[in-house]
């Protein structure tokens, strides 16, 4: 790469040479000249003409300190990218990770598909949706919170392995781990199960790390994470016992412990209270990477039950660095049981954000869906872990943000 241009009045002419003083840092200029070497042997372009391609009306950040204000960096990512080379490197690595995930899935004969972002009925996750309205149809719609129920319809249709790298939208809080608009890889495999999904998670991370280089042991903030397969497995019940000091089966003890932490609601199902207690007491200890298995079936309405214990769902969540990075099931395919579990949500049991009924999805299941495993992996969190980025906003080019005074509505992207 040529990094030097030499300007001489003898080549440019006095007038053009004098006009160089009008060039500022940040300007884009075009150079016409010929290659040569300086007296010290460096390759250079000896300029014969200079053309102003674009004038920068605002000065770039000061050279040595760059753009350091965190809030301003997110608001003006276009400056952050050229002012801070490590930021550009992070987003190049993000692109490599997503491509490696896509290649990994294609190699395993998964078909990449696209499902609707605008949905008449939201579902597939416990989350509050964003709402919008279609004028022509006079129809309220939701931005999808998950592609799950549409991807399962494709299994009914005969597509045996499908995946989507998708954008989801959840009308909830913002933190270092959450952005209302985020990217997931979600896949479904006919005749697969929970163990197949574990293999995919482990293999996907290993493949992405191989693409980035640096080995399967990665530094994330103060933690060292070892992504070497196989990852440890721990049950939900034993973790709740170890860190909350209660038995999942003892609803009274669970509620009493939850109340000491300010978690109390008479309207919540026992399993929902237990899960909030799990989040409050257990997750901070899940350095991992690891799989948490055998969740209560009451909080897993789309999941097949354990044969010898229907109170347990065939589900895992993958954790690393104390945050969830993936969620998977052996899928529930029985339409009668599926209708029953969704009706239980409607009647007030379980999480209030899952109180929706999708009759067409039940209709699809009645046509027959093969046994299957399903998986969702948070791409943004995956990139955080593999690039040692402390906040999800560091790996999303334009995170949502509260508008500053005087901002137009269209410029409100990221949060303080």
Describe the overall structure.
- There is one protein chain.
- This protein is an alpha+beta fold and 416 residues long.
- It folds into two domains: 5-59, Beta Barrel (OB fold (Dihydrolipoamide Acetyltransferase, E2P)); 82-232 and 288-411, 2-Layer Sandwich (BirA Bifunctional Protein, domain 2).
- Helix content is 32%, strand content 25%.
- It has helices spanning 9-12, 14-18, 70-75, 77-83, 85-107, 148-156, 194-212, 236-244, 251-260, 270-281, 335-346, 359-366, 379-387, and strands at residues 5-6, 28-37, 43-54, 111-112, 118-119, 131-134, 139-143, 161-169, 181-190, 217-220, 223-226, 233-235, 290-296, 305-306, 309-320, 323-330, 372-378.
- Helix 5 crosses helix 7 (194-212) and helix 11 packs antiparallel against helix 12.
- The longest helix is centred in the N-terminal third of the chain and has 23 residues, at 85-107.
- 36% of the residues are buried.
Count of domains? 2
Structural class designation: alpha+beta
Supply the CATH class of the largest domain: Alpha Beta
- What's the main sheet like? 9 strands, mixed
Percent of residues in β-strands:
15-25%
Q: Rounded to an integer, what's the Rg over CA atoms?
A: 27 Å
CATH domain fold name of the largest domain = BirA Bifunctional Protein, domain 2
Order of helices and strands: EHHEEHHHEEEEHEEHEEEHHHEEEEHHEH
State the CATH architecture of the largest domain.
2-Layer Sandwich
């Amino acid at each position: 790469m040529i990094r030097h241009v030499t300007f001489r009045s003898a080549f440019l002419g006095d007038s053009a040479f004098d006009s160089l003083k009008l060039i500022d840092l940040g300007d884009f200029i075009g150079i016409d000249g010929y290659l040569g070497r300086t007296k010290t042997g460096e390759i250079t372009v000896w300029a014969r003409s200079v053309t102003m391609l674009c004038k920068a009306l605002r000065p770039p950040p000061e050279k040595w300190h760059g753009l350091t204000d965190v809030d301003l960096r997110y608001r003006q990512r276009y400056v952050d990218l050229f002012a801070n080379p490590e930021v550009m490197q992070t987003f190049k690595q993000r692109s490599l990770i997503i491509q490696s995930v896509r290649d990994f899935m294609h190699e395993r004969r998964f078909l990449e598909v696209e499902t609707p972002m605008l949905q008449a009925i939201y579902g597939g996750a416990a989350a509050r949706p964003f709402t919008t309205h279609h004028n022509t149809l006079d129809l309220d719609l939701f931005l999808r919170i998950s592609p799950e129920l549409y991807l399962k319809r494709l299994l009914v249709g005969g597509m045996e392995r499908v995946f989507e790298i998708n954008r989801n939208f959840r009308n909830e809080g913002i933190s270092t781990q959450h952005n209302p608009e985020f990217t997931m890889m979600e896949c479904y495999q006919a005749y697969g199960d929970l163990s197949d999904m574990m293999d995919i998670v482990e293999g996907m991370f290993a493949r992405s790390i191989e693409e980035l280089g640096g080995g399967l042991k990665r530094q994330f903030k103060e933690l060292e994470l070892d992504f070497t397969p196989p990852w440890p497995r721990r049950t939900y019940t034993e973790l709740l016992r170890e860190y909350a000091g209660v038995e999942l089966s003892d609803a009274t003890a669970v509620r009493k412990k939850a109340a000491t932490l300010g978690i109390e609601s008479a309207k919540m199902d026992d399993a929902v209270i237990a899960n909030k207690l799990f989040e409050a007491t257990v997750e901070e200890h899940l350095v991992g990477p690891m799989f948490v298995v055998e969740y209560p079936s009451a909080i897993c309405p789309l999941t097949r039950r354990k044969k010898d214990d229907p109170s347990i769902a065939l589900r895992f969540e993958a954790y690393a660095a104390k945050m969830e990075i993936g969620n998977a099931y052996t899928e529930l395919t029985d339409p009668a049981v599926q209708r029953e579990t969704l009706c239980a949500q409607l009647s007030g049991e379980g999480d209030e954000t899952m109180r929706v009924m999708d009759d067409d999805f039940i209709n699809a299941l009645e046509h027959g869906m093969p046994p299957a495993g399903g998986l969702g992996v948070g791409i943004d969190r995956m990139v955080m872990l593999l690039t040692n980025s402390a906040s999800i906003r560091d790996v999303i080019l334009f995170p949502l943000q509260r508008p500053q005074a005087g901002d137009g509505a269209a410029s409100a992207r990221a949060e303080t």
